[in-house]
Amino acid sequence: MLDTVSPARRRRSRMILPQTALIDRAGLRAKLAALHAGGEPAADLRKNVIALFRAALDQGRALAQKALETNGGGLACAGQLAHVEDELIRAIHEYVIAYIHPEEGDAAGKACVIAAVGGYGRATLAPGSDIDLLFLLPDSSRGHGERVVEAILYVLWDLGQKVGHSTRTVEECLTEAKADMTIRTALLEARLLLGDRRLFERMRTRFEREIVAGTAAEFVAAKLAERDARVVRAGRSRYLVEPNVKEGKGGLRDLNTLFWIAKYVYQVREAADLVGAGLFSRSEYRLFCRCEEFLWRVRCHLHFLTGRAEERLTFDHQRQIAARLGYSTRGGLASVERFMKHYFLIAKDVGDLTAIVCAALEEKQAKPYAKLDRFGPGPRTQKMFATGDFAIENGRVTVPGPEVFARDPVNLIRLFWVADRNGLAVHPDATRFVTLSLKLIDAKLREDAEANRLFLGILTSRNSPEIVLRLMNEAGVLGRFVPDFGRIVALMQFNMYHHYTVDEHLLRAVGNFADIEQNKLTGDHPLASEVLHSIGNRTAVILALFLHDIAKGRMEDHSLAGTAVARALCPRLGLSEADTETVAWLVENHLIMSDTAQRRDLGDRKTIATFANCVQTIERLKMLFIVTICDIRAVGPGVWNNWKAELLRTLYWETEVVLAGGHSTIDRKRRVAQARAELRSALPAWTDLDFEAYAARLPQAYWLKTDLAQKTLHAKLMNMTEVEMPGPVTHIVADSSRGVTELTVVAPDHPRLLSIIAGACAAAAANIVDAQAFTTTDGTALDTIFVSRAFDFDEDELRRAGRIAFAIEHALNGAIKLQDMVATRASQSSPKLNTFRLHPEVTIDNTLSNRFTVIEVSGLDRPGLLFDLTTILSRLDLNIASAHIATFGEKAADVFYVTDLSGAKITLPEQQELVRRLLLKTFLKPLAAAT
């Protein structure tokens, strides 16, 4: 089982260059001999020896890189790099035993065995990979062997090689392998490079007999647990838009794990032997090879491109790799999108192969049986769907053969319906038969009433719809049965906001609905849990979630195009005309609630009135509220936070008041009066006269936009500026429940105040998520900004906020220049943003608010952008009443409610054009040049 086969014999298809062309050991040997015959000083001699080895290594690697870049194969490159390393190590060993630690007689060259282990043991090596070596020593002459090993390692280290190594006897190898599964895995793929073959074979024979025999279940359990932990670290989904080529789900490590397990359980030496062992069919083995070749090609290009062992395929590398691999723009998809679509389809194929191996292991009782949901309850005990076409094998629903689908194509949908209703996984054999029968999913089946009824039952199931839909998607059924869904399978969105492919995002959105409905997210979404259970048409909401992004990747607006898809699909699934229109409306408007909550002033009556006019009914408000939450949560980890939750709840309650005709709560004036009364009660030490004077200074919007805790704090801060300290006052609150830190500034008002605050935040790399600005009747500014948390612990968060407050106070009195601080921070920013191209836009609207001009600015985000934008507005003598800051990945979408210094809207066309022109310039050049 331990590999002694040469790279050329193992994978002849890898070789694009003759092996002798990669490194010339004979020539190297002659040059080394000439150096030693030259009588140079020891220091110079070692330096020149290392230079010879480095030149040989660099030449071999350069030839492998050139072959790869001229459309060579990934496995060929990995094999060539492994061969270069093999020959280098053999040459170094020859040099050491010839000139540093010579040994006479028959023992010459056999003082130790050198074996490649781990990935290097498979005779594949990525350009930036570590070199894993086992030095196997005989019990006799161990001292001499250790000296040889040390000399070899020093040469490798001088060459800058990253070497993982161990020096052991046979007995020590077996002892360590018995106790450590990582060492056992490494020895599993040990490959002899040089030394005493009999010693190596003795170790191999004893390893198979004493360690491997009878321990298959133990090994499989350990490797699968290790895989689960690795996938969690790299991201649970194989559809992450910045995947880890090596460690991620569907990556090379998954293929390695499959082969380790198969090698251990089936006692095979080569992947091709898995066909004879009955694990893979020939087509599945070819699929294994295609996946391995593609992933190796991407990995080798990635390492050469970055000059290091970079395994994450980040946005800033994706375009370059796509170009290296020859992808072009086609069919409405950019070259990078076509490349990544191919990548995700390969990752899906790796998942299919994983399922096949796991099912076979169950049959050999080498792993536990599967469940539909590993984290949920076991299979339900209710009676199976009685058609005679399905059976249970090893806890999975299966079919005897593809004839089940040929006889009744509806079974292609019913199979998954049965799995859902009984809480069973689908057997990989059944999935194979489904894949072979996909051509049966035609226009006739799509119009079949029973097939559509079963599919709607899966989609609206109260069990595990996300899991079953994902099984259907990976089997190819979902994209065939709903062709519009097939268009977005494995389609990535080339931006930093969405973490998953479009199809994965839709399935996760449906899963979020199920989680809320099953009260799994009550702690995060108490209002949503209450609202969802009061919705009269859950089917419409689920369908809207399934369809809301289904038209992504088209030339037209995806929300509008998605409505056409909804109007075509819903009647097919049996929905009434009214329900179809409800789904279409939700799809068309699925972004409006999120957009309004994050980018509008919720204290402005016009905002609520406009939104309520769009929604029209409380039932629609409820449905849109649920769709919005499920959509945002499905974007990716960290996108949803308590700050967004609070904004959405505020918008929901304010709109409900309007839609209920004002009967569900008190009117606006009474709410202001009640807010004043609550604050008065919270300030018992104040006299009535002092309180009335203070309250009269505040605008009406203030009473509605702030909660009691904020009002109480503001009153005390305002009092401090008059009684205790004359200068500006800042106050910090780390609010972990909302995921933000709140910074309040009380200071004499002037147009640059918000710009100074934004600059201080930019200098501290703090991301502003919202801002409120109020001005009292006597000219005191009361500004509150909210920055997203950067640290887990409040102490760290408060220290960062303290630096921001220090910068604000000193910038206000002219002690520091924020411009320089922001420029320094911008120079340290990640180059990733340079990968994206966004056309900046500025819109100026006087209809969105009764009192303010609303300026919307969107474009490529960068450190200091908000500082630049607010500086422009202040230099134009515009007063910013409130700012609403939203960032969607690389896209900044900021909204400012402004007036001129007289409190009037910006109505003159020439003034609007000046504002627009200067704001757009901030995206093109530094602020100093823009103004």
Sketch the major β-sheet: 8 strands, antiparallel
**And the CATH topology of the domain at 7-213?**
Beta Polymerase, domain 2
**Integer average pLDDT:** 85
Q: What amount of the residues lies in strands?
A: 5-15%
Shape: globular
- Please count the beta strands (DSSP E, at least 2 residues each): 15
Outline the low-pLDDT stretches: 4-17, 380-386, 926-931
Report how far apart the termini are. Answer: 72 Å
Radius of gyration: 33 Å
Helix content: 55-70%
DSSP summary: helix tally: 42
Structural class: alpha+beta
Strand order of the largest sheet: 8-9-11-10-14-15-13-12
CATH class of the domain at 7-213: Alpha Beta
Account of the protein in words:
- By secondary structure, the protein is of the alpha+beta class.
- An 8-stranded antiparallel β-sheet has the order 8-9-11-10-14-15-13-12. A 4-stranded mixed β-sheet has the order 3-2-1-4, sandwiched between helices. A 3-stranded mixed β-sheet has the order 5-6-7.
- Helix content is 56%, strand content 10%.
- The model is unreliable at 4-17, 380-386 and 926-931 (pLDDT under 50).
- α24 packs antiparallel against α26, α24 packs across α31 (618-633) and α37 packs across α38.
- It is built from 42 helices and 15 strands.
- β14 and β15 (891-900) form a beta hairpin.
